[in-house]
Write a structure and sequence with these properties.
By secondary structure, the chain is of the alpha+beta class. It has helices spanning 17-31, 41-75, 140-144, 150-180, 197-200, and strands at residues 77-88, 91-97, 106-108, 124-130, 133-139.
C-alpha cells in the first residue's frame, strides 16, 4: 500500500515572496504622503548673503568712527570754532577754527557713522581736531561721549534677523527631507515599471 501524502495545515502556509513584496509595496504606497515644497538653496544663499552684507555695513559704521574718536582722544587738540555753513544736500557742517595754531582754517566736520551734530550757521562750538590733518575733526562733546551709533545698531539688528530667518529655512528644509523622504513614491509602490514590448508579446509583423 502506498503512503498517503501529509497535507500541511493551513496555518503553516506561507505566501510566496513576490506576493509579500507586493503587499509591502501597497502598504508603502498608502502610507506615502506628498512632500511639501522644499525651500530652495537659492533662498538660503540669499539669506546668508544679506546677513554678510548687514554685518559688513555695521562694521563700516563702527570701525572708522571708533578709530577717529580714539585718535582724537590720544593726540587731538581742542579749539573754539564758528559754524560758517550748514547744508543737508549734501549733508555737511563747515566750521572755521578761531582759537588755535590753525586759526582761520575752514574745514568740514567729520561725520560719526554718517551723523553730524544739529547746529546752525553762526553758532559757536568746541571742537577737537588732528593737528596733522585738521580735516579729521569732531565736536569735542562727541569725542568725550560719542552718540549712540544708531546706523550700526540698525544694521546689526537686520543681520540678526536675516541670520535667524535663514536658520529657520535651513531647519525647515532638513525637517522636510527627514520626515517625508523622497518627493515621489518608488516605482514599485505605484505599480512598477511599464511593461515592455517583450513582456506584452508585441512583435513586429
Amino acid at each position: 500500500m502506498t503512503k498517503k501524502r501529509r497535507r500541511h495545515p493551513a496555518d503553516q502556509y506561507q505566501l510566496p515572496p513576490h506576493v509579500i513584496k507586493a503587499h509591502q509595496d501597497v502598504a508603502r504606497a498608502k502610507a506615502w504622503k506628498p512632500r511639501p515644497p522644499l525651500p530652495q538653496l537659492r533662498l538660503i544663499l540669499t539669506g546668508f548673503g544679506l546677513t554678510l552684507l548687514c554685518i559688513g555695513m555695521a562694521l563700516v559704521f563702527v570701525l572708522p568712527s571708533r578709530s577717529l574718536v580714539q585718535d582724537l582722544r590720544s593726540h587731538g587738540e581742542g579749539a573754539a570754532a564758528t559754524v560758517i555753513g550748514v547744508d543737508s544736500k549734501p549733508k555737511y557742517v563747515k566750521v572755521r577754527l578761531v582759537s588755535s595754531p590753525k586759526a582761520g582754517t575752514e574745514v568740514k566736520l567729520s561725520d560719526y557713522a554718517g551723523m553730524l551734530p544739529e547746529t546752525e550757521t553762526g553758532a559757536s562750538m568746541i571742537v577737537t581736531y588732528d593737528p596733522e590733518d585738521p580735516s579729521r575733526i569732531l565736536a569735542q562733546s562727541w569725542v568725550e561721549d560719542p552718540p549712540a551709533n544708531l546706523p550700526a545698531y540698525g544694521t546689526s539688528a537686520l543681520a540678526v534677523i536675516c541670520l535667524g530667518l535663514t536658520t529657520a529655512v535651513i531647519w525647515r528644509r532638513f525637517r522636510i527631507l527627514r520626515t517625508f523622504g523622497p518627493e515621489k513614491p518608488s516605482a514599485s509602490s505605484t505599480g512598477g515599471e511599464k511593461p515592455s514590448d517583450k513582456s506584452t508579446g508585441n512583435t513586429k509583423s
